[in-house]
Design a protein that fits this description.
heterotrimer, A mainly alpha, B mainly alpha, C alpha/beta, A: mainly alpha, MetI-like fold, two-stranded antiparallel sheet, 14 helices, 2 strands, globular, C: alpha/beta, Rossmann fold, 6-stranded mixed β-sheet, 4-stranded antiparallel β-sheet, 37% helix, 27% strand
Chain lengths: 322, 288, 249
């Protein structure tokens, strides 16, 4: 009796270390598992590295870092409020402009376009997403900014100058240029995810609407309502992309930590501060403050992306109950 | 009921017109979305073509004030950087993707899948900062290695997810055929599953590489840049993107011009990679 | 016998592929016409021509379809579908809408906005589709959170709300359990007093139970059309006989 128990235990012991009968299978699974684990550890390591790197800044400024509006490397005072402000405002404005366009394009691709046109158009939209950020920036500096300086800003201040948003000297470089370039950059992301989300809505939903006497637009509204959470997810992914966008923004935003209502004024974003000042950061505290900025950006984007993915994923599951 | 001989009422006309207007607007939106693409391509090609000559590919950058010269070091630098990136990103991505599709139907699998997606949303500049604290600080100087590692991290999500998706497309029957022959699972996966999914995986790899080739932010304070010829991975190295950035900001018109040419070369390089991508996907459909 | 829909020499295509060949049928008013035939015989395509849903998936037709003497291929499909409603094979309620809104949506799509007008119609249609007693206390629940059989009856109520004259049913019970199927069949029996019904089914017992007339389709052609009991007892065509006896299909 006792012998057979110990034999069983031995079997269990072996099973624990060699769960499948085949040693090769076991090694293979563990090997791929190790790589998967490395991805898991990488994300944690990234957070840890930045926390370590920004420790002295965190200890000195604490939460003041987020609410203090003075960013002065000479005095060694680091308050990121104007930078966070610039990041959020430029991204939100870009989203507000891009969203109706993106939904329009996605609806055209998913609901309206004939198949022979849909494929090349989708390809062009993907192409827009594939252009390197630095080329957007180059184009921004030499084409977009001069156009804004000579045409857009004078026009806006002439017609809408009574609003505080459109006052000041037309530099070209500034928040407006950053917003426009971000709009172009987030458009393909929101569009292609929204298109996929719309396509995941079963055809039977459109047929149900049409069979009730709906027009194409009415049936599209019903599909859009079905796809609400996915579109919200797409928008958040676009937001995540916009707040982390570095090169193009750095090249056109004017790079001054300033809170101003005017879209003509220069501004600054977290990513562009890091890009601009990292190699110039001579003191330990300066570097630490910049790394803390990266940490803030890291935490925000993780949060935004996690939420966005959950929303987009929820769309896939939704249709299994209908 | 009163038999309404298809008599349209006011509301009918209103909804028909609304529908027509809205559908036209979506078409206009689609056209408008293409405009920036056309503009960017137009300027890059028309401005970039002036300096596009053999020198650009084989000569070194000239000092300020001398016109001409090329970016041979930057082209080689970019290739070295994506080479290092690929050496990290490709194996990690493919192995992780394999794990996720073959063994990943558990909690750990979901967590990793989720983190991969989250990783793809982390700004590339943040990855640059991490590569700086992890590699540049201990090595005490900027290096191609640090830049390449940053690019490698950025490739992981794309390659992982494509690998997973592509392996999932391999029919279960193919797997069962292998297993039924008494081939162990690992051999089946390697010799049958990965083999039939390799084209899809290759496209993912190319996509990852071409995105990495266009990255600038993570290189600014890792690979830094180098005005001289260097192929050492322990030293700072030039790249096309950082050159575009530096030359675009510079006050010299000649350099501004070269920035456009570098942009054109970069686009050509990326197009070459996606052309490969297209060729591979095309032949995939043929064999099926 | 009054004719509601008269189909004359109808051909239907998917691209270059001809899927219906020269179909001519007169569909009598306030009766149930069942369309039977093996899968792929064109029976679904046929009824989708009657409310022009066939063209939604890129199909084209040739020939005439007269609804009360008016050629429906020449009228506006949006107007037409108000008069010719459709119930689909798989229940397709709108999951983002409540049960109430699912039924009300057809009214709203056609311009009825007044809640005082809508509420009694919703109640009437849910009663007509024998769903009222089961859902009257949960009208705010999502249309997707009820059983499959209830979803299908909800879809029928949704169709009734638009007040159509003809109801097309594309295998309405094929995705349902036997009890729900019985309920749907009873419902069809009730509805034919007020509506002209065309039902596609692959279930011959169902055709025999609910319909007044039966048409047998085979390979895109109409083989035989007659009174239902005639089709099932003494069909005049050999292919029909083979099919109803279960020898193929």
């Amino acid at each position: 009796m006792s012998q057979s128990v110990s034999k069983k235990e031995k079997n269990n012991f072996l099973k624990r270390f060699f769960p499948s009968n085949n040693f090769g299978d076991f090694i293979f699974e563990r090997l791929t598992w190790l790589f998967a684990l490395s991805v898991f550890l990488l994300v944690i390591l990234m957070g840890y590295e930045m926390y370590e790197g920004s420790k002295i800044s965190i200890q000195k400024f604490g939460l003041d870092f987020l609410v203090n509006s003075e960013w002065d490397p000479v005095q060694e005072i680091y308050g990121a409020l104007p930078i966070i402000y610039g990041t959020i405002v430029s991204s939100l404005l870009a989203l507000i402009i891009a969203l109706p366009f993106s939904i329009g394009v996605a609806v055209y691709l998913a609901e309206v376009a004939p198949p022979w046109l849909e494929k090349p158009l989708s390809f062009l939209v993907e192409l827009l997403a594939g252009i390197p950020s630095v080329i957007y920036g180059l184009w921004g500096i030499f084409v977009l900014v001069p156009w804004i300086r000579t045409d857009v800003e004078p026009y806006l201040s002439d017609k809408l100058g009574f609003l505080p948003f459109f006052r000041g000297a037309p530099y070209g470089f500034g928040l407006l240029a950053a917003v426009l370039i971000l709009t172009i950059m987030v458009l393909p992301i929101i569009t292609s995810i929204t298109r996929d989300v719309l396509k995941s809505v079963p055809r039977s939903q459109r047929e149900a609407a049409l069979a009730l006497g709906a027009t194409k637009w009415q049936s599209t509204i019903i599909v859009l309502k079905d796809a609400k959470s996915g579109i919200l997810g797409a928008t958040m992914l676009g937001f995540g992309r916009a707040i982390g966008e570095t090169m193009a923004v750095t090249m056109v935003i004017g790079n001054r930590a300033l809170i101003s209502p005017s879209l003509f004024d220069p501004s600054y974003t977290m990513a562009s501060v890091i890009a601009n000042e990292f190699t110039e950061a001579t003191s330990e505290m300066y570097l630490s403050a910049l790394i803390q900025l990266a940490l803030v950006l890291f935490v925000i984007t993780i949060f935004v992306n996690a939420l966005a993915r959950l929303l987009v994923w929820s769309m896939d599951r939704k249709w299994k109950t209908v | 009921m009163e038999n309404g001989m298809m008599k349209p009422d006011f509301f009918f006309y209103r909804k028909k017109i609304t529908s027509f207007i809205m559908m036209s607007l979506t078409f206009i939106a689609a056209l408008a979305a293409i405009i920036p693409l056309v503009l960017i391509f137009y300027y890059t090609i028309s401005k970039g073509i002036t300096y596009l000559n053999l020198d650009f590919f084989v000569a070194m950058p000239k000092p300020v004030g001398e016109s001409g010269g090329g970016m041979a070091n930057a082209i080689v630098g970019t290739l070295i950087l994506i080479g290092i990136g690929g050496a990290i990103g490709i194996p990690v991505g493919i192995m992780t993707g394999t794990y996720l599709s073959e063994f990943g139907k558990n909690k750990f699998g979901y967590v990793v899948r989720f983190l991969t997606d989250v990783l793809s949303g982390i700004p590339s500049i943040v990855v640059g900062v991490v590569a700086y604290t992890m590699i540049v600080v201990p090595m005490k100087h900027f290096s191609a290695l640090a830049g390449g590692i940053a690019l490698g991290i950025l490739m992981i999500p794309t390659i992982t997810r494509t690998t997973e998706e592509m392996i999932k497309l391999v029919p279960q029957t193919l797997r069962e055929a292998g297993l039924a022959l008494g081939i162990p699972k690992w051999k089946t996966t390697l010799s049958i599953v990965l083999k039939s999914a390799w084209k899809g995986i290759a496209t993912g790899v190319l996509l990852g590489l071409s995105r990495a080739a266009g990255e600038t932010a993570p290189l600014l304070f890792t690979a830094l840049g180098n005005r001289f010829w260097s192929t050492s991975i322990g030293q700072p190295i030039a790249s096309l993107t950082v050159y575009i950035y530096d030359y675009a900001k510079s006050p010299f018109e000649d350099w501004n011009q070269q920035a456009w040419t570098a942009a054109l070369v970069l686009i050509l390089l990326i197009s070459l990679l996606s052309l490969l991508f297209r060729v591979i996907t095309r032949s995939k459909y043929k064999t099926n | 016998m009054e004719i509601k829909i008269s189909v004359k020499n109808l051909d239907a295509f998917y691209g270059k592929n001809k899927v219906l060949h020269n179909i001519s049928i007169d569909i009598p008013k306030n009766k149930v016409l069942a369309i039977i035939g093996p899968s792929g015989c064109g029976k679904s395509t046929f009824i989708r021509c009657l409310n022009r849903m066939h063209e939604v998936v890129g199909g084209t037709i040739k020939g005439e379809i007269l609804l009360d003497g008016e050629d429906l291929t020449k009228t506006d499909p949006v107007l037409l579908r108000k008069r010719v409603g459709m119930v689909f094979q798989k229940p397709n309620p709108f999951p983002s809408m409540s049960i109430f809104d699912n039924v009300a949506t057809g009214l709203r799509l056609n311009g009825v906005r007044n809640k005082k007008q809508i509420t009694p119609i919703v109640e009437k249609c849910l009663k007509q589709s024998a769903l009222w007693d089961e859902v009257k206390d949960q009208l705010n629940k999502s249309g997707a959170n009820i059983s499959g059989g209830q979803q299908q009856r909800l879809c029928i109520a949704r169709t009734l709300a638009v007040d159509p004259e003809v109801i097309l049913m594309d295998e309405p019970a094929s995705a349902l359990d036997p009890i729900s199927t019985t309920k749907i069949e009873d419902l069809i029996f009730q509805l034919k007093k007020d509506y002209t019904i065309v039902i596609v089914t692959h279930n011959m017992q169902q055709a025999a139970r609910v319909s007044d007339y039966t048409a047998f389709f085979y390979m895109g052609k109409l083989i035989e059309l007659d009174e239902t009991n005639k089709i099932f007892t003494s069909p005049s065509n050999k292919q029909t006989e083979d099919y109803v006896r279960g020898r193929f299909g």
